[in-house]
Every structure is written in structure tokens, then in C-alpha cells.
Design brief:
Layout: H1 2-42, H2 44-48, H3 52-62, E1 68-74, E2 80-82, E3 111-115, E4 118-126, E5 130-139, H4 141-171, H5 177-191, H6 207-282, H7 286-316, E6 324-328, H8 329-346, E7 352-357, E8 365-369, H9 370-386, E9 391-401, E10 411-418, H10 447-457, E11 461-466, E12 473-480
Length: about 475
């Protein structure tokens, strides 16, 4: 009788330890993920502005949690922006573990893993898209302390149970078999997660009754711990929901402000342009006419900037609407080319040659928003002129099959702008079509972001690559043909 009871006691301890360890570890993981997810929200604005001081200040606040061993903030490609040290000694180094897309179901899902007694949590920093990652390493020492205490408790309880069972088995009559069976049943139920079982033995006043009482106390302690953990998770979740709601409100207010500001900015631009033309037509002095031209050019740039800001607001608010019509893409590209040839001539850019290579003997008919496609072609052509000091800019149009079948339903129109300029900086290439992705002081970095959204809204694609000969780059986009 003694040996089976001792074996049961050991099995119960192992089972109970395994359940408790898994529950504590899962709770620890959830709390860590909740903390780092909340931290990723707090890091959004400073990372978006690349404000290193604000990033370091936020990281220091987060690292006040004693369980955090290290914390890093990276760009989407894994390069470290801030590491929480005063000298930021890991700046611009690359962390590859947080950009492992195979380890998560979604790029916006936190990544959790355990390595060498360290719980590692990687969470994306997202505004409208992922702008970076935050990685934190949590020490599992506190969890190990809890588990060690649990082991000791279980060993003590197991030892007490074994001693009592041996003594009872040797010196007490069969009358104890019923409460022992009751205790065994209760232990089985608890091991299954049923904490509603009654353990107390009120009909006795001996060691078995005391054991029942102590076991019941342990059960109540476990129940209380579970309730506290559940409450903690709910509180953290609620805090995260509140913070997320506040962030949404702030983002909404920011977008509304930018939208209003851009609209108000456009109001005085039109009179400036109109009156500048009137003044220029009436002014005979060439020097003053030149000053008026400067006013007009800068007013036009300001008008384009206001329009870009409004377009970005519409894109991020998913309010970009298309006014589709059928037109010949070749004719549209040719008219835009003529305008840029005139602009190059007016600005004395004789070192640049604009060439057009349309598809031969065939019109390219598309069903698209003529104004928006004009905006895209102008953006690509304007960028080519901006970054080409001398040489040739070749614009071509062609019809290709998208790889589906040979039927006309899968044909697409492709427009390419190839220049002999400075090419695309390798640092910019991975985020070329995102907002503000420019190292030049000549623009805002919004044009390619807007162009990408316009083309994708039409069901097309846009891409870019440096030329094989090392001179310049080629930007291309595709649109479905009208059938």
C-alpha cells in the first residue's frame, strides 16, 4: 500500500508543477508582451521623428522595470536606432532575430521566444505601417525563483504526505481509507484544473483533517494566484486599450489639423499666382520680371506641396477616389514630355535630352484617372530631371503579359522612365516608396509615396532599380489594359 501511494504523490507533484509552471510562464509572457506592445505605442512618435533624445528618455522609463535586461529600438530593416545606453554603443548595428518573418503569422504580430533563460519579445512599431521594431530581453530569474519556491513547497508537501501515508498505513486501521480516497480524488480533480472540489475533512480531528486543511489552504492560494494573474492581465489589457484609444484620437486630430492647414494654405496661393502673371505682363523691366518669375515659381512649389499634403491625408484616411475614363496612354505621356521639354529649355538645362520611345503603331488604351496618372508620370519625370545633371532621360511605353496567360485579359501597360543621373542610394532603396524617403534637399520625399498609392489603387504596380551599367536608375509602373 505504501509504495503505490508514494508513487501517486510523486506523480501528483510533477503534474501539479508542470501545470503551475506553464501557467506562470504564460502569464509572464503575456505581461511581457503587453508591456512591450504598450512601449511600442509610446515609441511611435519619437521613432517617427527619429528624435534620439526622446527615444532614449522613453527607453529609460521602460527599463525601470527590473526584469528588463536590455532594450533596443530598430528600423524595419533591423538597424538599431537606440539601445538605452548613454553612449548608444550599438547604434546602426543590425538585429536579425526581430525581422524573422517566418517566426510569426503576421509582420505586425509580436514575436516571443526563450533563449538561455531569457524571454525575448519583439514588437512592431506601427503608425499606418511598420516603421520599426522594439526588442526587449526579460530575465527569467524571477520566474525561476517562483518555480524553485514551488518545487520546494511541493517537495515539502509531498514529503509530509508521504510520511503521513506511511504512518497511517503502518499504525492506523482501515478507517482512514475513505478520507484518503477522498483526498486522492481531490488531488486528481485539482491536477485537471478543477479547483471547486471540496477538500476539508470536518468529521475528524486528527492528522488527516489537518492535512486536508493545509491542502485546502494551498488550493485557495493557487486559486487566489490565478485570480490575481487574470486581474493583472485584464488591467494591462484595459490600460493598453485606453492608450490605443488616446493615440487614435491624437492621430485623428493631427490629420484634421494637417488637412485644414493644407486647405487654408492653398487659398492665398491662387491670388499670388494670378497677380504675379498680371504684374509680369505689365512690367517692362527685365530685372523686375525676373523677380516676379521667382515669386511665381515658389508659389507653384508651395501649391504642389499643399496638394501633396492633401493627397497623403486622403491616402492615410483611405479617402483617395478615382475619376476613371478611357484615354490613350501614349498621348498622355507625349503631352507631359512636351511640357518638361519646354521647362528644361526655360531653365537652360541644355545638357539634358528628353527622348520618348512609345510602342510602335498601336495606341495603349487604359481606363484610369487621367489626372492622377498625369501626376504619377510627372513625379517620375520630375525626379529624373532633378537628379540628372547631364545626359539622357528616356521614357518608354510597352504592352506586356503579366504572366497569367496569353489572353488579352492579362495584358498590362508598362511606362518606364530611365535616366543617367546619380542613381538610387542603397540606403534609401528598401524604403524608397515610403513617406519622406529622400536624402535630397530638393524635395519632401512624398511624391513616390503618393505615386505608389495611386498606382496600387488602380490595380497596378510600381518599382525601381539602378541601371546595370551603373549610370542612373529606371522607374516603372504598370496599369491594366482596357479590354
Amino acid at each position: 500500500m505504501v509504495i503505490p501511494v508514494v508513487i501517486f504523490s510523486v506523480v501528483f507533484e510533477i503534474t501539479f508543477y508542470s501545470i503551475s509552471r506553464n501557467e506562470i510562464l504564460e502569464a509572464y509572457k503575456k505581461e511581457a508582451v503587453s508591456l512591450i506592445s504598450l512601449a511600442s505605442q509610446e515609441l511611435r512618435n519619437p521613432l517617427y521623428r527619429l528624435d534620439l533624445d526622446a527615444l532614449e528618455h522613453t527607453i529609460q522609463n521602460i527599463k525601470q522595470n527590473p526584469d528588463i535586461q536590455s532594450l533596443y529600438v530598430t528600423l524595419p530593416d533591423g538597424r538599431i536606432v537606440a539601445d538605452g545606453t548613454s553612449e548608444n554603443k550599438y547604434y546602426n548595428k543590425t538585429l536579425s532575430d526581430c525581422i524573422d518573418t517566418q517566426a510569426r503569422r503576421s509582420p505586425y504580430e509580436p514575436l516571443v521566444e526563450i533563449k538561455n533563460d531569457v524571454l525575448r519579445v519583439c514588437a512592431p512599431v506601427v503608425i499606418t505601417e511598420k516603421i520599426g521594431m522594439v526588442r526587449a530581453d526579460f530575465s527569467l530569474a524571477p520566474l525561476n525563483d517562483i518555480l524553485n519556491n514551488l518545487i520546494m513547497t511541493l517537495i515539502m508537501i509531498g514529503g509530509i504526505i508521504s510520511i503521513i501515508v506511511i504512518i497511517v498505513g503502518l499504525f492506523i486501521s482501515r478507517s482512514i481509507s475513505k478520507p484518503i480516497l477522498k483526498l486522492k480524488h481531490a488531488a486528481n480533480e485539482i491536477s485537471k484544473g478543477n479547483f471547486n472540489v471540496d477538500i476539508k475533512e470536518t468529521s475528524r480531528n486528527d492528522e488527516i483533517a489537518e492535512l486536508s486543511s493545509q491542502f485546502n489552504t494551498m488550493k485557495q492560494s493557487i486559486v487566489s494566484t490565478n485570480e490575481n494573474l487574470n486581474k493583472l492581465v485584464k488591467d494591462r489589457t484595459r490600460e493598453l486599450e485606453i492608450a490605443n484609444e488616446e493615440l487614435k484620437n491624437q492621430e485623428k486630430m493631427q490629420k484634421e489639423f494637417i488637412n485644414i492647414a493644407a486647405h487654408e494654405l492653398r487659398t492665398p496661393i491662387q491670388p499670388i499666382l494670378g497677380l504675379s502673371e498680371v504684374l509680369r505682363s505689365e512690367e517692362e523691366d527685365e530685372g523686375k520680371r525676373g523677380l516676379i518669375d521667382v515669386i511665381s515659381r515658389n508659389a507653384i512649389r508651395l501649391e504642389r506641396l499643399a496638394q501633396d499634403i492633401l493627397d497623403v491625408t486622403r491616402i492615410e484616411s483611405q479617402l483617395l477616389r478615382l475619376n476613371k475614363q478611357k484615354f490613350n496612354l501614349n498621348s498622355l505621356v507625349l503631352s507631359i514630355m512636351e511640357e518638361y521639354k519646354k521647362e528644361i529649355g526655360d531653365n537652360d538645362r541644355s545638357d539634358i535630352k528628353l527622348l520618348y520611345n512609345p510602342i510602335e503603331g498601336k495606341d495603349i488604351i487604359v481606363d484610369a484617372d487621367r489626372g492622377r496618372i498625369t501626376q504619377v508620370v510627372s513625379n517620375l519625370l520630375g525626379n529624373a530631371v532633378k537628379f540628372t545633371e547631364e545626359g539622357t532621360i528616356m521614357v518608354s511605353t510597352e504592352v506586356k503579359n503579366d504572366g497569367g496567360s496569353s489572353s488579352n485579359n492579362n495584358n498590362i501597360a508598362v511606362v518606364s522612365v530611365k535616366d543617367t543621373g546619380s542613381g538610387i542610394d542603397p540606403e534609401i532603396m528598401p524604403r524608397l516608396f515610403t513617406k519622406f524617403s529622400s536624402k535630397s534637399r530638393k524635395g519632401t520625399g512624398l511624391g513616390l509615396f503618393i505615386s505608389k498609392s495611386i498606382i496600387e489603387t488602380h490595380g497596378g504596380k510600381i518599382w525601381a532599380e539602378n541601371n546595370i551599367d551603373g549610370k542612373g536608375a529606371t522607374f516603372s509602373f504598370s496599369l491594366p489594359l482596357f479590354n
